[in-house]
Amino acid sequence: MTTPSSSGPSRAPWREVLDSHLSQTSDHEFTIGTIGRDDQNRPVPRVRTCGFRGFFPELTLHPSGAKDMEQQVEDGGNPSLYESDLFTLTTDVRMEKLAQLELSSQEIEAVFWLKDLNAQWRIKGKAFAIGNPLGETDTQEKWARSAVQKGLRVKDDGNADTSGKEKWSWEKAVTKYFANHSPFMRGSFRNPPPGQPRSQEPSDPRLKMAQKVTDLHDPVARANFRVVVIQPEEVERLDLTNPEDVRRWKWTLEGNGDHSSGDNWVETELWP
Ligand SMILES: Cc1cc2nc3c(=O)[nH]c(=O)nc-3n(C[C@H](O)[C@H](O)[C@H](O)COP(=O)(O)O)c2cc1C
How many domains, the chain? Predict the structure, then answer.
């Protein structure tokens, strides 16, 4: 890919606290809100639970996923080079959320309620789906990758493998997210179409329940698999630890708002 021109945007000021919170709890689901349309084409809110998959493109694989990457992907995957403040989730292209994003200027809101920490985190921004196996010949994929790319920065922890820049690819990045799922979960991307009546047998015999996928490049599953990357524009933390002094902070991204290198997070403490 064309590499970020500079080291990219600096690390968001809310990351340290959020990372610390997430490391103290095993609940890594968040609620994802999008804008749908009812049958009279009026805008309506739509929400659902999704698993949070960390900040793009960093992901620590479980041992069997790591082994699959070693055996099936060139160099075992990408060099450790980039990091970002972009939230990720994975989804099936056949579900409703992606079409809703397309119809609403990519607007998304996500919320974590971390009960053990008395903390609510709300993230407002735009989301882009990557992982179309057609790659950049698909204009939507090309556009989504370029949006995500603006938020990437070269790791500054001294471990960045800058010699491997030419070896870094979007395909390997997405494949790692697919590898992160168990063979059974990977098989869900070969399920009959989500949300359609169970009475309707799929015409494609390859679409069945309870399949196990060990091939990281399984063409049927990968055609449906996407990584959704959220570009946060506003992050809000609500701290309910002390009921007598509830605290609330908001961070707003100022500048272009697309995480390019001039953008700046501005912190404001709010009345709760
Ligand atoms: C605990 C839990 C985790 C889930 N994780 C995901 C996920 O990571 N991605 C996803 O697309 N759906 C996930 N789902 C299913 C969604 O909540 C939802 O049913 C599905 O995405 C279809 O929604 P849509 O058609 O509105 O897109 C999860 C559900 C639960 C209960």
Answer: 1
For residue range 110-165, list pLDDT tens digits in order: 999 999 999 999 999 999 999 999 999 999 999 999 999 999 999 988 878 888 88
- The pLDDT assigned to 5 comes to 44
Dihedral, 109, 112, 118, 119 alpha carbons, nearest 10: -50
Question: For residue 10, is it within any domain?
Answer: no
Residue 8 has pLDDT above 80, yes or no: no
Choose which residue among 95, 96, 111, 227 to substitute to test ligand 1 binding: the one with the highest number of ligand atoms within 8 A of its C-beta: 95
Atom of ligand 1 nearest to the CA of 36: 26
158: left (phi over 0), alpha (psi -120 to 50) or beta: left
| Residue 178 forms part of a structural domain | yes
Q: What residues make up the domain containing 87?
A: 15-270
Nearest residue to 145 via CA among 163, 128, 121, 166? 128
Residue 4 lies in a domain: no
Rounded distance, CA 9 to CA 7, Å? 7
Please tell me the distance between residue 248's alpha carbon and the centre of ligand 1 in angstroms: 28
Distance 181 CA to ligand 1 centre (A): 14
- 91 forms beta bridges with 226
Residue of 55, 50, 53 whose CA lies nearest to 16: 55
* H/E segment holding residue 250: strand 247-254
Domain-located, residue 108: yes
Query: What CATH number did the domain enclosing 202 receive?
Result: 2.30.110.10
